[in-house]
Write a structure and sequence with these properties.
The protein is of the alpha/beta class and about 325 residues long. It has two domains: about 170 residues, Thiolase/Chalcone synthase (Peroxisomal Thiolase, Chain A, domain 1, 3-Layer(aba) Sandwich), CATH 3.40.47.10; about 150 residues, Thiolase/Chalcone synthase (Peroxisomal Thiolase, Chain A, domain 1, 3-Layer(aba) Sandwich). About 30% of the residues lie in helices and about 25% in strands. It has ten helices and 13 strands. The radius of gyration is 19 Å and the shape is globular. Oxa(dethia)-CoA binds next to helix 2, helix 7 and strand 12.
Length: about 325
């Protein structure tokens, strides 16, 4: 049987500080009612403290993953960190995480695909594993969105939170593992969700700081409309490609950007609420971390052979879907 890549462990790390809707309502003109009805978020985690970058919690997730899977750092040969909030522009945060975790025999790099980062990174890692180039890969989805959020802009500051998740990928030869992925992008969408300054086009200056150009800007309505169509279309496409009916699916794992987008996608798929992993209420949109955070939280319920579809939409625009069969019985792991 052909070699496939399977997730053989998942871990996560969340900052302790909880920013609830009540506190946000004191900072800007908003309300718990508006945020719950329009987005579905009650609270999000914020990484506070000096000298704490995304590598702080991403390294914590990786260390816990190594321990839980009984893996020595020396065995890891590949680390990919999906993030839009690296510790710094250079070097890659994956290099820093590897150093902190004692991973010395791996090549490591970052991948930026907005909110689709983890899906892109999981697909990339799977190709290395399937080809035999990598035997044990760690794929991380992690973002410290609070570093690039303008907490005076009510259009964005209610949406995002901080978090990190990581999975171990290993080769399998049974019928489990990553079966298929469909990835897409459309760069004409770059102007609707972006951070204007800080890159080579508009390097940091007094002017870019004064103009709030180091924060995320989003045209919410345009992104919303595209997200609803693209997430649903690509999920239906992967289901049809594999002749999958709604009842064949154990779990749908959608990007956690907005409850209304999740509900619209689920309606198109014809699945019910108890087939969907949803934690947006607790963590908000953690960008590259939403999918591994869901897998981590639901891991105790997952069974070997479960059909799972992951789907995302994000900045770029980027979107995609992965179909996998869960590779192990996860009860009693947490
Ligand atoms: O993860 C990457 C992908 N991102 C997404 O998928 C996000 C997609 N977009 C969205 O989820 C939604 O567009 C938002 C949640 C961002 C906004 O929801 P919306 O239903 O599209 O609201 P809107 O922007 O059309 O604004 C409706 C009203 C406006 O007031 P008026 O002009 O009707 O008087 C806004 O000024 O709501 C107002 N508003 C707010 N009110 C209270 C906007 N933000 C807030 C707020 N609190 N935080």
């Amino acid at each position: 049987m052909a070699v496939k890549a399977a997730i053989t462990g998942v871990e996560a790390s969340l900052p302790e500080y909880i920013l609830g809707n009540e506190e946000l309502s004191r900072m800007i003109d908003t309300s718990d009612d508006w945020i719950m009805s329009r987005i579905g978020i009650k609270e999000r985690r914020i990484l506070k403290g000096q000298d704490t970058g995304i590598s702080t919690i991403a390294s914590d997730a990786v260390n816990k993953l190594l321990k839980k899977t009984n893996t020595s750092p020396a065995e890891i040969d590949l680390v990919i960190c999906a993030t839009v909030t690296p510790d710094m522009m250079v070097p890659a945060t994956a290099n820093i995480i590897s150093d902190v975790c004692g991973i010395k025999n791996a090549f490591s790099f970052d991948l930026n695909a907005g909110c689709s980062g983890f899906l892109y990174a999981l697909t990339t890692g799977a190709k290395y594993v399937e080809s035999g180039f990598s035997k044990k890969a760690i794929i991380i989805g992690a973002d410290k969105m609070s570093a690039i959020i303008d907490y005076t802009d009510r259009a964005t500051c209610c949406l995002f939170g901080d978090g990190a998740g990581a999975v171990l990928l290993e080769p399998v030869t049974d019928d489990t593992g990553i079966i298929d992925s469909i990835l897409r992008s459309d760069g004409s969408g770059h102007q609707y969700l972006y951070q204007k300054a800080g890159g080579s086009l508009r390097p940091a200056s007094h002017q870019t700081v004064d103009n709030h150009e180091h924060f995320v800007y989003q045209d919410g309505q345009v992104v919303f409309k595209r997200a609803v169509v693209c997430m649903a279309d690509i999920t239906i496409e992967i289901m049809n490609k594999h002749n999958m009916l709604p009842r064949d699916l154990a779990w749908f794992v959608p990007h956690q950007a907005n409850m209304r987008i999740i509900n619209a996608t689920a309606r198109r798929m014809g699945i019910s609420r108890n087939q969907i992993m949803i934690n947006i209420e607790k963590y908000g949109n953690t960008t590259a971390a939403t999918l591994p955070l869901c897998l981590w939280e639901w891991e105790p319920k997952l069974k070997k052979g479960d059909n799972i579809i992951l789907a995302t939409f994000g900045a770029g625009f980027t979107w995609g879907a992965i179909y996998l069969k869960w590779a192990y019985n996860s009860n009693n792991l947490h």
